[in-house]
Amino acid sequence: MKIESKNKKKWYNYLWIATILYLTLGLFNILFAWLGLICFLVPLIISFTKGNKAYCNIYCGRGQLLKLMGTKFSRNKPIPKFLKTKWFRYGFLIFFLSMFANMLFSTYLVFNGTNNLKEIITLIWTFKVPWKFNDLSNITPWIAQFAFGFYSIMLTSTIIGIITMLLYKPRSWCVYCPMGTATQGICIIKNKLNKNV
Ligand code: SF4
């Protein structure tokens, strides 16, 4: 009986479905990209308030999805050592944050009327893909621009995560995922501060 209850799946074991839904809904309406903010804010809130990585360990749908896909498609090879180093993980975090700031700036330029809305998705910060799956004529341009930028970030990190999953172990992306690095850094600082109090 005990084994049965241990194996019983909880609601959070199915959050990988939310990740698939999120990526699919963005195809039909780019404004769904805004929902991705949940995946940005929840891990930060948990690490700031609790000082732990419960989001990564329990609630991250992307981590679950990579693990699931990895059972079929991963080569299951060890990840290269340099991807685990501090300089790479924090360097990648800084790069990711600067791309995020750039996306916010592009949104601002549309907000203040300097630029027009660009209905494109930028993949891996390089490839520009026209994305006109729905009519945005009634939407405030900066709201749509943020959605395009944010969806680009989410798709890009998913693609890199999948490539890493295929080449190495299923959740190898988690080794250098910017959100994982950021929350780990927050937890280290928070726990140090708590010890010194
Ligand atoms: S490291 Fe990134 S992808 Fe992996 S579980 Fe944490 S937030 Fe999710």
UniProtKB/TrEMBL annotation:
Q: Which residues form the 4Fe-4S ferredoxin-type domain?
A: 32-80, 154-195
One Gene Ontology cellular component annotation held by this UniProt entry: plasma membrane
State any single GO MF term. 4 iron, 4 sulfur cluster binding
Alphabetically list the UniProt keywords: 4Fe-4S, Electron transport, Iron, Iron-sulfur, Membrane, Metal-binding, Transmembrane, Transmembrane helix, Transport
Q: Which residues form a coiled coil?
A: none
Chain ranges passing through the membrane: 20-46, 87-111, 142-168
Q: What is this protein called?
A: 4Fe-4S ferredoxin-type domain-containing protein
* High-level lineage: Bacteria, Bacillati, Bacillota, Clostridia, Eubacteriales
